[in-house]
Structures are given as C-alpha cells and as structure tokens.
Amino acid sequence: MKRLLSGNEAVAHDALEAGVSVAAGYPGAPSTEILETFARFPHVYAE
User: Fold this and answer.
1) Which stretch of DSSP H or E encloses residue 45?
2) How far is 20 from 12, CA to CA, in rounded Å?
C-alpha cells in the first residue's frame, strides 16, 4: 500500500528501518512530529 508522508514522518520510518529503538525529544522542538510518529511504532521507546 502506498501512502503519502510528510518529511518528518519519513524520517521516523527511516529511523525505524535503520534499527533505532530509543528516541527522546522535548516539546516545541522542530522534531516533535518525528518523535510523535516514532512513538506509534511497536517495540520502540520514545520519551
């Protein structure tokens, strides 16, 4: 299935494919959408 992603969502998906399993950020950062997307994946830790 094809799906359009924002650039930030694509970064989150690429991080998962690269083997990243832990991510952290802070509210208001430009990368907030990346962390929100990453946190929805199973078997990862995001804070």
Assistant:
1) strand 45-46
2) 9
